[in-house]
Inverse folding.
C-alpha cells in the first residue's frame, strides 16, 4: 500500500483533496463532493503506515507530541500537496490539499478585472477572504504572479506551508515556510520588515499580533496581501477590529481606514452541468467614503456603498451569484444556498 499511488490516482481524477482515516476507504473531494477512491476499508495499522510514508522523523515527533502537524509534500511528476496529519480517537489521519504545479494567471480564474488594479497598488493592505476551500490561496498566487510579471520589486511570502512555487521574473521572490524556514508568522513578519521588501504575502492573519504587524507593514509603505476566513467586506473589517481589546479598537480603526485598499470575498459554487466549480465574488474597493465609515465605526453602511460602487469596480456577492444564475452556469438551488441575502438575490434575478 503506497500513499504515492493514491495521490497519483487522486490527481488523475481531478480531486481537490484526499482524506485518509480509519474505518472507510481513501476518500477524495471532487468538485466539492466526497467519493471513495476504492473499496478497501483502512484500519489503524494502514493509516499509521501511510502517515509514516510521508512524514520525516522530525515531523513524526511533532505529530506524536502535538497531535497534529502541517507540511508540504512533493511527488515528482505528479504535484505538490498541502498536508495536515493528525491524531483522532487513538489513530492517525491525514488530509491532503492538491496544489496545481502551474502558478495560475488572473485571467484563467474568472476573477473581476479590478484585481489587476488592486495587485498594481504600491502600498497598503489587500485581503482575500472566504470559507476554507474557496480558492483564496489560488487568487493570491495569481496576484503575486501578476506583480512578478509586471513590476521590478522584492516579494516575500510567509506561508504555512508554502503552496504555489514562484520563480523569479521581473521581481525577486523569497518564500518562507513556517516550521521549516521560520518559527512563526510573527517572527517572519518582524524579520521581513528588515529584509527590504516591497510586497509581503502573509498566508493567513491568524491572531492579534500578526494583524498588528501587518497593519504596521502596510502603513510603512509596503503592499501587504493576506487572507481571512470571513465572507463579506463588512464582516471582515469587524473581525479584524474585534480581535483587539476595546481600548485599542479606535486606533486599529484609524490604521485600517488609512491602509486598507480592498477586500475580495469569494465562494466556489458547483456548475449546473457538474463540470466543476465557478467562483462568485464580492469586491470592495476603499474610497474616501468607505474609509470614513471604517474610522467612524459605521461598517453596517459599507454594503450599500458596495451596491452603488460599480464605477469603482465594486459589486456584491449576490449580484455575482445572480449573474452566474442568469448565464445558466449555476442552478437556482445553489444560487440560493450560497447567497448572502436570499430575498435580495430573488429581486436581482427578477431584474432584466
Amino acid at each position: 500500500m503506497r500513499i504515492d499511488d493514491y495521490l497519483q490516482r487522486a490527481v488523475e481524477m481531478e480531486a481537490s483533496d484526499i482524506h485518509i482515516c480509519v474505518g472507510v476507504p481513501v476518500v477524495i473531494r471532487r468538485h466539492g463532493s466526497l467519493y471513495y477512491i476504492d473499496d478497501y476499508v483502512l484500519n489503524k495499522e494502514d493509516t499509521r503506515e501511510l502517515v509514516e510514508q510521508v512524514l520525516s522523523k522530525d515531523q513524526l515527533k511533532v505529530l506524536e507530541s502535538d497531535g497534529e502537524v502541517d507540511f508540504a509534500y512533493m511527488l515528482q511528476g505528479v504535484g505538490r500537496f498541502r498536508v495536515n496529519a493528525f491524531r483522532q480517537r487513538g489513530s492517525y489521519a491525514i488530509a491532503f490539499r492538491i496544489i496545481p504545479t502551474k502558478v495560475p494567471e488572473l485571467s484563467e480564474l474568472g476573477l473581476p478585472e479590478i484585481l489587476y488594479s488592486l495587485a498594481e497598488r504600491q502600498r497598503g493592505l489587500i485581503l482575500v477572504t472566504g470559507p476554507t476551500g474557496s480558492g483564496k490561496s489560488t487568487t493570491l498566487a495569481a496576484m503575486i504572479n501578476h506583480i512578478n510579471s509586471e513590476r521590478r520589486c522584492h516579494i516575500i511570502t510567509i506561508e504555512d506551508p508554502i503552496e504555489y512555487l514562484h520563480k523569479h521574473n521581473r521581481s525577486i521572490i523569497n518564500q518562507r515556510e513556517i516550521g521549516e524556514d521560520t518559527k512563526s508568522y510573527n517572527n517572519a513578519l518582524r524579520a521581513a520588515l528588515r529584509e527590504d521588501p516591497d510586497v509581503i504575502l502573509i498566508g493567513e492573519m491568524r491572531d492579534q499580533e500578526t494583524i498588528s504587524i501587518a497593519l504596521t507593514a502596510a502603513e510603512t509603505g509596503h503592499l501587504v496581501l493576506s487572507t481571512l476566513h470571513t465572507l463579506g467586506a463588512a464582516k471582515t473589517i469587524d473581525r479584524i477590529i474585534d480581535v483587539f481589546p476595546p481600548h485599542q479598537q479606535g486606533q486599529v480603526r484609524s490604521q485600517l481606514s488609512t491602509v486598507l485598499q480592498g477586500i475580495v470575498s469569494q465562494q466556489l459554487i458547483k456548475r449546473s452541468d457538474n463540470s466543476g466549480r465557478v467562483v462568485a465574488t464580492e469586491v470592495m474597493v476603499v474610497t474616501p467614503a468607505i474609509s470614513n465609515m471604517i474610522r467612524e465605526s459605521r461598517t453596517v453602511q459599507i454594503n450599500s456603498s458596495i451596491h452603488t460602487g460599480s464605477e469603482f469596480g465594486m459589486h456584491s456577492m449576490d449580484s455575482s451569484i445572480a449573474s452566474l444564475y442568469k448565464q445558466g452556469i449555476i442552478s437556482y438551488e445553489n444560487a440560493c444556498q450560497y447567497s448572502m441575502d436570499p430575498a435580495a438575490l430573488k429581486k436581482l434575478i427578477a431584474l432584466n
In short: The chain has two domains: 3-99, 106-315. The longest helix spans residues 136-150. The chain has 14 helices and 13 strands. The CA atoms of residues 15 and 278 lie 15 Å apart.
